Amino acid sequence: MWVLIFTTIVVLIIFRLKKVYSYWKDRGVDYVSPLRSFGPFAENILRMNSHSEVLKRIYDEFPNKRYVGFYNIFQPVLIIRDLELVKRICVKDYHVFHSHSEIIPSELDDLWSKHLFNLTDKKLWNNLRTPLRQFFTTNKLKLSFPVIQKVSRNLINYLKTKSKGQPYTLETREIFKRLLNDISANAYFGVNCDAINNGENEFMYMARKAMSISMMSGVKHVIANLFPRLLKSMGAKIYSKEVRTFFTSIIKQSIKMRYENEFRGPDVINTLLQLYDADKSHLDNLSESTVKNITAQAIILYFAGFETTTSTLSMLVYEITLNPDIQTKLYEEIVNTLKGFNGTVSYDAIMAMEYLDNVVKETLRLHTPTSLLDRRAMSDYEIESEDPKEKTLLVKKGTPVWILQKAIHLDPNNFPNPEKFDPDRFSYGNKQNIKNYSHIPFGSGPRSCLGYRHAMVVVKLTITELLLNYELLPTNKTYVKNSSKTYNIIDHGVWVKLNPRMK
Ligand code: HEM
């Protein structure tokens, strides 16, 4: 009897899997076999390779295809290779692809599902993105520049205290994390932190906890993907209770302080207060959902910029340390440009540095911090055939669509000799050779990165201050890469020797 039940279950599962995994074959789309589709998960979980590097291998296997079928565990995903299709999905036909895939059911964790990145409802998303956008305009960034500069100078002072005028060996990822913490805690939570001098600072500690939960949430993602109801019925959340309570209470304190001091300046918290509960004038009158909504947005603004900007700073330092000619050219540009600005590092001065801009762009190309842009078809969508061997493809409503940034950035058809760190690709004379939509570290279209200008300011300012004070030299701990596998480099830590400049 049991044997019969067991056999029936196995047959049903096999039958179901066969149906799921024939999705791309049935549509005549070239695809990665289901077994191989597990590769990215396995290699990532076993820390053999990053998600983006495994996906790049898949992208490279289909050099002549505009798109490729893939299975994200059980879910069919369309991987886009063609740059014209990237444009259609991100920009031209954005009305169809305005949303990300909902990996975790929205009702599972409100702090997670209510934040800007995860909002799937176009109207709700737009109502939130529009007021937040004002904080990332040039004018606003100029106003917040002194605050960012104060933190970056705190970093230099910290390094000076440590190095005492002598060469000093440093692992840069950790110190850049502390820098980002201090900048973002102030900008989005209204809290002054000094994690640079005290890495055990409570805010930083809780943020690390929340982010390691986010990494752990990889496992929850898989469970949510397979058994969403199970997770919900278990009352599972993405963020732990401790993390939720901590960040919510920080936001409450910030709001209280605003009411008590009648501080109504147009910062992120006040703007969100205005958006959610404009008529309230006391913390006690605010609804729980307003506090949660504001906390959710502060968390995403903090987290979205944290790993991405830290990784960009570290990888930039790494590349210019191993490429002294580039470092010298960059240092000379910084010194020469500042001469035109009374020797003062200002917003306008760092924005006037063209080579610095090229170095940052090339870092983002070669060491793209995020692995893919994901979109979901919100209605059926046709991709017309372009050659006789291809059929017109109907992308069914709900299908996730992935654009593999790193694979596109390292495709020799887009960037010749792609493994080489060569900022001159973006120089004034060369930039017309860069294909549209081939350089997409911040995504593209209305759903692209909200904070990209902010990130550029933080990276450019920090590198300027660092190079003005130190020459960067390799140490015997500096891992020397044999490919652009950022993952390996980061695993070893990004070690440099800071050699103080004589002034
Ligand atoms: C080097 C640093 C950064 C990189 C490479 C980066 C990259 C990205 C990418 C690839 C996306 C998805 C875009 C798309 O799907 O088209 C994104 C979205 C986003 N980023 Fe960034 N980011 C960086 C820094 C920041 C910073 C500093 C902030 C906050 C101040 C930020 C806030 C956001 C937000 C809120 C979204 C979601 C936007 C939406 O869905 O409307 N990012 N970012």
TrEMBL record:
<dbReference type="Pfam" id="PF00067">
    <property type="entry name" value="p450"/>
</dbReference>
<keyword id="KW-0349">Heme</keyword>
<keyword id="KW-0492">Microsome</keyword>
<dbReference type="InterPro" id="IPR036396">
    <property type="entry name" value="Cyt_P450_sf"/>
</dbReference>
<dbReference type="GO" id="GO:0020037">
    <property type="term" value="F:heme binding"/>
</dbReference>
<keyword id="KW-0472">Membrane</keyword>
<dbReference type="InterPro" id="IPR001128">
    <property type="entry name" value="Cyt_P450"/>
</dbReference>
<keyword id="KW-0256">Endoplasmic reticulum</keyword>
<dbReference type="InterPro" id="IPR002401">
    <property type="entry name" value="Cyt_P450_E_grp-I"/>
</dbReference>
<protein>
    <recommendedName>
        <fullName>Cytochrome P450</fullName>
    </recommendedName>
</protein>
<keyword id="KW-0479">Metal-binding</keyword>
<dbReference type="GO" id="GO:0005789">
    <property type="term" value="C:endoplasmic reticulum membrane"/>
</dbReference>
<dbReference type="GO" id="GO:0004497">
    <property type="term" value="F:monooxygenase activity"/>
</dbReference>
<dbReference type="GO" id="GO:0005506">
    <property type="term" value="F:iron ion binding"/>
</dbReference>
<comment type="similarity">
    <text>Belongs to the cytochrome P450 family.</text>
</comment>
<keyword id="KW-0560">Oxidoreductase</keyword>
<dbReference type="InterPro" id="IPR017972">
    <property type="entry name" value="Cyt_P450_CS"/>
</dbReference>
<dbReference type="InterPro" id="IPR050476">
    <property type="entry name" value="Insect_CytP450_Detox"/>
</dbReference>
<keyword id="KW-0503">Monooxygenase</keyword>
<feature type="binding site" description="axial binding residue">
    <location>
        <position position="449"/>
    </location>
    <ligand>
        <name>heme</name>
    </ligand>
</feature>
<keyword id="KW-0408">Iron</keyword>
<dbReference type="GO" id="GO:0016705">
    <property type="term" value="F:oxidoreductase activity, acting on paired donors, with incorporation or reduction of molecular oxygen"/>
</dbReference>
